[in-house]
Amino acid sequence: MRLLTLGEEAVSLYKQFVEKPSVIIMDHRMPVKNGIDALKEILNINDHAIVIFASADASVKKEALSLGAHSFKQKPFDIEYLISNIKKALGSSKPITIS
């Protein structure tokens, strides 16, 4: 699994995916393109994309949610909290594997 570090790269790869990810976890502070700009572009490509926005910067919460982020998670948070939010976003109680 390859982690994306740049908002620009995240959008570029999202465009290339034949099978889109079920959930996207988007950070705000990234080089080249921040999370808000990447969120806008991804939702412009697919307005049904489920994006969980995560940031230590609470000042972007309102904007992220108003743009269409499914939810906002303020850092730091633990993995169990994130997993429960992913399950909620997917409407599922099935186990989730993180790899």
Molecular structure report:
- This protein has 99 residues and is α/β, with parallel strands linked by helices.
- The protein has helices at residues 7-16, 35-45, 61-67, 79-90, and strands spanning 24-27, 51-55, 71-74.
- The chain has a 3-stranded parallel sheet with strand order 1-2-3, sandwiched between helices.
What is the structure about, briefly put?
The chain is an alpha/beta fold and 99 residues long. It has four helices and three strands.
Supply the CATH superfamily name. Response regulator
CATH architecture annotation name: 3-Layer(aba) Sandwich
Average pLDDT rating:
86
* Overall number of structural domains: 1
Walk me through the topology.
Blueprint: H1 7-16, E1 24-27, H2 35-45, E2 51-55, H3 61-67, E3 71-74, H4 79-90
Parallel strand pairs: 1-2, 2-3
Helix pairs in contact: 1-2
Throw out a few tags for this protein.
3-stranded parallel sheet; Rossmann fold; 4 helices; globular; 99 residues; alpha/beta; 3 strands
